[in-house]
UniProtKB/TrEMBL annotation:
<feature type="domain" description="Alanine dehydrogenase/pyridine nucleotide transhydrogenase NAD(H)-binding">
    <location>
        <begin position="152"/>
        <end position="316"/>
    </location>
</feature>
<feature type="compositionally biased region" description="Pro residues">
    <location>
        <begin position="372"/>
        <end position="380"/>
    </location>
</feature>
<feature type="domain" description="Alanine dehydrogenase/pyridine nucleotide transhydrogenase N-terminal">
    <location>
        <begin position="4"/>
        <end position="143"/>
    </location>
</feature>
<protein>
    <recommendedName>
        <fullName>NAD(P) transhydrogenase, mitochondrial</fullName>
    </recommendedName>
</protein>
<comment type="similarity">
    <text>In the C-terminal section; belongs to the PNT beta subunit family.</text>
</comment>
<comment type="similarity">
    <text>In the N-terminal section; belongs to the AlaDH/PNT family.</text>
</comment>
<comment type="function">
    <text>The transhydrogenation between NADH and NADP is coupled to respiration and ATP hydrolysis and functions as a proton pump across the membrane. May play a role in reactive oxygen species (ROS) detoxification in the adrenal gland.</text>
</comment>
<feature type="region of interest" description="Disordered">
    <location>
        <begin position="369"/>
        <end position="380"/>
    </location>
</feature>
<comment type="subunit">
    <text>Homodimer.</text>
</comment>
């Protein structure tokens, strides 16, 4: 079987789906060839030479798509306009990438019409066995880390406190809203950089995780559990949201940086930081809104952009993992390679086993048939 790695064509996308190291692994495991589009890894610092040394065959764009049995990508393929990637896919070929099928129905239909087998990395069930394939967590971890660095770049002082001959510098205070994968990564990074960190989440389980990273878990005086199906957040009552926003109003007057990560799967992001709260922040404060792509947690976020409101910088970048392309490509490559290998247990024999919960959860189309949503597992 031949595996193909195209160069990502989406504007400002710097990641590549696999690294030279995983190229060598696939060849060792019995895949006949790995075709890599010339320049595919350059922006992530993986040179053509490094891919060649790992055993890859460098080819031009159209050959990656037409000559590969299995295509590995980061972003969902484009399916219209001059650069229509789905039309380049070999009929009955297999594609694995981020896809967000529920939001991209037209893409799913297009893949089905080409008879493709396709898998969405974003649909891999978050069960223990599938943690090694969990690219959403890998990218959220990077986004949380990078959020702190971006905030620090736009903040005029140290994050850590210092006593110097020129005077005593107080540590920066950071509020992190939402302590899922990205939020916890932001907490850990901010703590390592010496900031005082406070965090809030609606799920009670988050408290211990926040505290174990050396941050303070702040709470409202209202008992309501935020954990819904599968450990994911559910939408909270109006009373709870009002109570947490009251807490944030007070916090905004005290902290220097706010990083928001609050998301509810399949719903728009809750609006938690109002114009009034921004106005209450100190001049020079920074907000990083990691929920920008889902509409944003902050009223003044401009998705994909850096905005200013009063004297507060509001960062709404939606491509934070791509801004750390070597690291994000390395982790994504490990996730996607292990996922592919899990479907190829007998070396060359790639096979789709729909009784496998991870395969069934992430498969989008099979030989032209649209398969999601996956059935719920039968009760024990
Ligand atoms: P997410 O990105 O969907 O949401 C981020 C956080 O926002 C969540 O912690 C959520 O509780 C919080 N949130 C939602 N509404 C809020 C509000 N109004 N105010 C404050 N916070 C709010 O979440 P995620 O990072 O993908 O992870 C969610 C859960 O899934 C966690 O429990 C995590 O441990 C779990 N998880 C499990 C696995 C696994 O088992 N393999 C992998 C990844 C994540």
């Amino acid at each position: 079987l031949i595996v193909g790695i195209p160069r990502e064509a989406y504007p400002n996308e710097h990641r590549v789906a696999i690294t030279p190291q995983n190229t060598a692994l696939l060849l060792k495991k019995g895949f006949r060839r790995v075709l890599v589009e010339r320049g595919a890894g350059v922006e992530a610092q993986f040179t053509d030479n490094a891919f060649e040394q790992a055993g890859a065959t460098l080819v031009e764009r159209e050959h990656v798509w037409s000559d590969s049995d299995i295509l590995l990508k980061v972003r969902a393929p484009s399916f219209e306009g001059a650069n229509n990637e789905v039309d380049l896919l070999r009929e009955n070929g297999t594609l694995i990438s981020f896809m967000y099928p529920a939001q991209n129905r037209a893409l799913v239909d297009k893949l089905a019409s080409r008879g493709a087998n396709s898998f969405a990395m974003d649909m891999i069930p978050r069960i223990s066995r599938a943690q090694v394939f969990d690219a959403l967590s890998s990218m959220a971890n990077i986004a949380g880390y990078k959020a702190v660095l971006e905030a620090s770049n736009h903040f005029g002082s140290f994050l850590t406190g210092q006593v110097t001959a020129a005077g005593k510098i107080p540590p920066c205070k950071i509020l992190i809203i939402g302590a899922g994968v990205a939020g916890l990564s932001a907490i850990a990074t901010a703590r390592r950089m010496g900031a005082i960190v406070r965090a809030f989440d609606t799920r009670a389980a988050a408290r211990e995780q926040v505290q174990s990273l050396g941050a303070e878990f702040i709470e409202v005086n209202l008992k309501e559990e935020g954990s819904g199906t599968g450990g994911y957040a559910k939408e909270m009552s109006k009373e709870f949201i009002e109570a947490e926003m009251k807490l944030f109003m007070k916090q905004c007057q005290e902290v220097d940086i706010v990083i928001t990560t609050a998301l509810i799967p399949g719903r728009p992001a809750p609006k938690l930081i109002t114009e009034e709260m921004i106005a209450a922040m100190k001049p020079g404060s920074v907000i990083v809104d990691l929920a920008a792509e889902a509409g944003g947690n902050c009223a003044k976020t401009v998705p994909g952009k850096l905005a200013k409101h009063n004297d507060v910088t509001i960062i709404g970048y939606t491509d934070l993992p791509s801004r750390l392309p070597t690291q994000s490509s390395t982790l994504y490559s490990n996730n996607i390679t292990k996922f592919l290998l899990s479907m190829s247990p007998q070396d060359k024999h790639f096979g789709i086993d729909l009784t496998d919960e991870v395969v069934r959860g992430s498969i989008v189309t099979q030989a032209g048939e649209v398969l999601p949503p996956a059935p719920r597992p039968a009760p024990p």
